[in-house]
Amino acid sequence: MTAPSDVLVVGASAAGLATVEALRRKGYAGRVTVLGAEAHLPYDRPPLSKQVLGGSWLPGQAQLRTPATLSALDTEFILGDPAVRLDAGARTVHTAAGRTLTADAVVLATGLRPRTLPGQDGLAGVHVLRTLDDTLALRTDLAPGRRVVVVGDGVLGAEIAATVCAAGVPVALAGPQPAPLAYQFGPLAAGLLAELHAARGVELRLGSAVTGLAADHGRVAGVRLASGEVLAADVVVVAFGAAPATEWLAGSGVVCDNGVVCDSRCRAADGIYAAGDVARWHHEGLDALLRLENRTNATEQAVAVAGNILGEDRPYMPVPYFWTHQFDARIHVHGTLSADAEVSVVEGDPGEGRFVAQYRRDGKVTGVLGWNMPKQARLRRQDIAGAVLAGRT
Amino acid sequence: MKVTVDEAKCCGAGTCVMLAPDVFDQRDDDGIVILLDEHPGEALHGVVREAASVCPGVAISVSEDA
Ligand SMILES: Cc1cc2nc3c(=O)[nH]c(=O)nc-3n(C[C@H](O)[C@H](O)[C@H](O)COP(=O)(O)OP(=O)(O)OC[C@H]3O[C@@H](n4cnc5c(N)ncnc54)[C@H](O)[C@@H]3O)c2cc1C
Ligand code: SF4
After folding, report:
1. For the CA of B54, the nearest atom of ligand 2
2. A101 and A120: one domain?
């Protein structure tokens, strides 16, 4: 296969930028264009719910690369102009501002859009947290004396609650699970997380689904629970999941079903690839369609896509990994965890706030969770890799 | 090539160590990156550039002309 003469990347964030860097690193000298919906130069999302929301970083510190590093990539960045339509057969992308861009290879890296609650649009005081602008709007709304309710007991909601609480703003966390992240972490680690949040002052209102919002004169006044209760709130952050940003691909010829559906090479159609949160590809090791929403997948999948664009023809088979930072707990997860897995502590001691737990199903290690023991958790990752690859045919 | 790391940005993922164990390690107590070789040999340049690009903490910088 010969290298394409030009590449168009749609989405100017972690996965999009890493695709370009990997193409250049692998010696690609053709024309590269990156199209991004947001007006900002590529920036990173993990610091948004941590350092930027907490105020320890200025927004500029979340930038992924300096302008000098970006210009060394010899790439045209078209920012602030979202793609609105793709013609997969012709590999042509149409933008909101009326541009028409065509390339030999197109990479879809448009990430996710947060889910919202009915009645949330246009209501003052209700926020989501996906972009830098979202983060700054939320920060501005955290005025003294305000009470915040975070809707969503997954990783993003729990992290936001911790950051807001550590900044001295009263906050409650609402969601259906018995403890933050319980469906994923299981009782031991989720129980410790619940203890940590409660000890630091987060009001845990868990075990009841959120059904809607209460409003007063155009501003949010509370969060309604399935139990019938209403939690009073001046500010609400909705963080209960996000959906792949694929609506612009309707009618394009590319299959979208909970993400851009791809083969094991991350290819959605001839000359069309997907990378990062938006991509749902065939993981050959697990023999399943997988879509991962984490930072290392965004870049590792981008490296795989760049290689496949250049003809490497390699399946992408990562061991999933993510980290989260809540109060003084730095949690690192390799592989996949589940609430019904058999969990054993293999290093350290939960009572001392440092340990590594191994998750097993049917006798096989599927995941490892490190709590303030990142290096030790990583060293245990090979136990999983074996199990992941054991499914290979 | 000169490599620098920003400990304050490192999240302890260890991606760099998996890619280039001759250049990076992690501290035992908190997992923060340790730079073993500021001036890695030419054979390692490709993998060090990859480590800098995929580091999820954006903690690794590479200056090519140093
Ligand atoms: C607040 C927050 C905290 C996080 N913390 C962690 C963490 O601690 N650890 C971890 O492992 N992961 C974390 N993640 C997840 C991680 O940030 C994502 O997995 C990663 O950003 C995915 O990168 P991406 O490039 O695929 O998508 P995104 O980063 O979502 O980038 C997609 C880009 O495409 C643009 N776009 C969308 N539609 C269009 C269009 N039609 N045309 C052009 N451009 C478009 C968007 O504006 C966006 O810039 C966090 C995510 C968030 C939001
Ligand atoms: S890859 Fe980056 S964040 Fe991870 S240990 Fe290395 S320097 Fe730190």
Report:
1. 1
2. no
Distance A58 CA to ligand 1 centre (A): 19
- Cα gap A158→A311, rounded to integer Å: 42
Hey, are the CB atoms on B50 and A375 less than 8 Å from each other?
no
Q: pLDDT digits over A383-392, tens only?
A: 996 655 544 3
Q: What residues of chain A lie within 8 A of the CB of B54, using their CB? A: 18, 296, 299-300, 303
> Is A323 touching B (CB cutoff 8 A)?
yes
Instruction: Give the model confidence (pLDDT) of A295-351 as tens digits.
Output: 999 999 999 999 999 999 999 999 999 999 999 999 999 999 999 999 999 999 999
Domain containing residue B45: CATH number: 3.30.70.20
pTM score, two decimals?
Answer: 0.96
DSSP strands (E only) in B1-66: 2-5, 24-26, 33-35, 60-63
Query: By the 8 A CB rule, do A381 and B39 touch?
Result: no
> Would you say residue B66 lies in a domain?
no
Ligand nearest to the CA of A49: 1
ipTM of the complex: 0.95
CA–CA min distance B47, chain A (Å): 10
**Same domain, yes or no: A18 and A88:** yes
Tell me the one-letter amino acid at A295.
R
B33 falls within a domain? yes
Say yes or no for a CB contact (<8 Å) between B31 and A374: yes
> Quick one: pLDDT band at residue A215, thresholds 50, 70, 90?
very high
B-contacting residues in A 40-59 (Cβ below 8 Å): 44, 46
Q: Collect all residues of chain B within an 8 Å Cβ-Cβ radius of residue A46.
A: 11, 56
Q: What's the structural domain count of chain A?
A: 3
Indicate if A121 and A236 belong to the same structural domain: yes
State the Cα–Cα distance between residues B50 and B45, nearest whole angstrom.
9
The helix (run of H) or strand (run of E) holding residue A197 is helix A182-200
A107 in a structural domain: yes
d(CA A17, CA A40): 13
- For residue A87, give the amino acid letter: D
User: Which of A303, A374, A375 has the CB atom closest to B54's CB atom?
Assistant: A303
